[in-house]
Design brief:
Shape: globular
Helix content: under 10%
Largest sheet: 4 strands, antiparallel
Strand order of the largest sheet: 5-37-36-35
Number of helices: 0
Radius of gyration: 19 Å
Number of strands: 37
């Protein structure tokens, strides 16, 4: 598999048959090719009897995401989304009607973050751009290096993590930098988009090296930091164990997953361990009131009990289809794949219950749950809202 790592400040493609990583660079998103033989090819679509009939509530077209990962954001009654060419839109989350569409006049590398009052995206070369809820430009700031993760917006701050593992917080109204926190960067890391979640007065930050950090919003000081990944092995490649996707927070629990590492849930206030299991994912996880859902690097979808970490079911029928992070919606779990299919699994037993085709392009962004619907964004630019009940 071609995998993208950051080494000595540069990005290189590493051929590694032992891992399957959805790279966000020009390297292959899919299976490792050698001569005419495909190692771990994506499994074909399996036939099954559909027991649900998801409805497409609305669909909005955006330009392409290119080699970057753009995830939609929900704030109030609106969905915000962006594309690589600089397009940023606000859409009514119920009707799909476009409220506004603007041009950032700059190529973008990540987005979107919003609390409804401030909308933030990342531009090329580490530029941070902010707009108000009506799409009016507010300010521009310069981060220390490229940004691949969507900014987090909340409590009057816009927070970004650049690829050199510097976490910077900017005033949401003025763009003035409030604080800067530095974390160690391993010599070899995945070129992916680990995210930041703001809850109350804490920013939960996914980091390279398998760390999950909780930072105070007041000054960026650490509340706690815990290992999710567990770097092991004799080579740098074997020791890559970066936290993937967005940490998820529900009640007093925060959960995260790492590549070549583990999946676990922790006390949101103290970082005390609730449970942890060996697991490997490059795309993050989903959570609801009772369960944690995760897609592993081999295309398996697993449901864990949120309180204990017990594995309740596993579905391996989508092996190596480069799955997105799952989302819990009603009685189902929705997950996208590299061909733009959205698969619905029973939350009770993991069986496939429905499948919906989109535009044929990969879905690697984090899905967003909006009441009884779920919104996915494809790499070709389709923003699609689906309901199951």
């Amino acid at each position: 598999m071609r995998t993208v790592f950051k080494y000595a400040g540069k990005y290189v493609c590493v051929l590694a048959a032992a891992v399957a990583v959805a790279s966000l660079s020009g390297c292959s998103l899919f299976s490792w090719m050698t001569s005419k033989k495909v190692i771990n090819p994506p499994s074909p679509l399996v036939e099954f009897k559909a027991t649900q009939n998801p409805r497409t509530l609305w669909k909005v077209s955006l330009p392409k995401s290119g080699v970057y990962q753009f995830s939609p954001a929900l704030a109030g009654d609106s969905i915000y989304a962006a594309a690589a060419d600089g397009t940023v839109i606000r859409v009514n989350a119920v009707s799909g009607q476009t409220v506004w569409r603007i041009d950032a006049k700059m190529k973008l590398t990540a987005g979107v973050g919003s609390d409804g009052s401030t909308v933030a995206v990342a531009g090329e070369k580490g530029v941070v751009l902010a707009y108000d809820g009506a799409g009016k430009f507010l300010w521009k700031a310069q981060a220390s290096s490229e940004i691949l993760s969507a900014p987090a917006v909340g409590s009057g701050l816009v927070i970004v993590r650049s690829l050199d593992s510097k976490i910077a917080a900017y005033d949401a109204l003025t763009g003035e930098r409030r604080w800067l926190a530095q974390r160690n960067t391993p010599s070899l890391t995945l070129r992916n988009a680990p995210g930041i979640v703001i809850v109350s007065q804490t920013a939960y930050v996914a980091l390279p090296g398998g760390r999950l950090s909780a930072l105070l919003l007041t000054n960026g000081g650490p509340r706690w930091e815990v290992p999710v990944g567990d770097p092991r092995g004799t080579t740098e490649l074997e020791r890559v164990s970066d936290v993937s996707g967005l940490p998820t927070v529900a009640g007093n629990t925060v959960c995260a997953v790492a590549f070549q590492g583990r999946i676990g849930c922790f006390d949101a206030a103290s970082g005390a361990l609730h449970w942890i299991k060996n697991f490997s994912s490059t795309v993050g996880l989903g959570i609801d009131e009772s369960y944690v859902f995760a897609s592993d690097e081999r295309g398996g979808v697993v449901e864990f009990a949120r309180d204990s970490g017990a594995i309740l079911w596993r579905n391996d029928k989508m092996a190596y289809r480069q799955l997105s992070a799952p989302a819990s919606i009603g009685s189902s779990v929705a997950v996208g794949d590299y061909q733009g299919y959205i698969h619905f699994l029973s939350r009770e037993n993991g069986n496939l219950v429905a499948r919906v085709a989109t535009d044929g392009s990969a879905i690697i962004s984090n899905p967003v749950v909006v009441g009884g619907s779920v919104v996915f964004q494809t790499q070709a630019g389709s923003l699609v809202a689906l309901a199951t009940e």
